[in-house]
Amino acid sequence: MTQLQAAIAATRFGMGARPEDIRLAASDPRGWLKSQITPAAAQMPAGDLMSTRQVFEARLETMSMSAGDQAAGAA
């Protein structure tokens, strides 16, 4: 396999290569990439992230405040 194929595999779906990834992927880029796809790797713990509704409501509030500031400035 080529260094280019190793570099493409190491970008891991746009997440970027970690140090040493290209060297590790060089001998078998496809196999190396397949080894990265595991159920544990697919989990994205939400932690303290806001829900979609909370994000939307916060955005509406920000937009409303911005509109109020603009109206006050125009008066």
Structure summary:
With 75 residues, the chain is mainly alpha-helical. It has one domain (3-74). The chain contains 5 helices and no strands.
Please tell me about this protein's structure.
With 75 residues, this protein is mainly α. It has one domain (3-74). Helices cover 64% and strands 0% of the residues. It contains 5 helices and no strands. The protein has helices at 3-10, 21-25, 29-36, 39-42, 52-74. The relative contact order is 0.10. The model has no long low-confidence stretch (mean pLDDT 82).
Keywords:
75 residues; single chain; 5 helices
Shape: elongated
| Share of helical residues | 55-70%
Instruction: Measure the end-to-end span.
Output: 68 Å
Oligomer: single chain
- Based on CA atoms alone, the radius of gyration comes out at 22 Å
Secondary-structure element order, as H and E?
A: HHHHH
The total tally of domains equals: 1
Low-pLDDT windows of residues? none
Our count of helices gives 5
Mean pLDDT rating: 82
DSSP strand count: 0
Strand content: under 5%
The class by helix and strand makeup works out as: mainly alpha
Main sheet attributes: strand count, strand direction, barrel closure: none
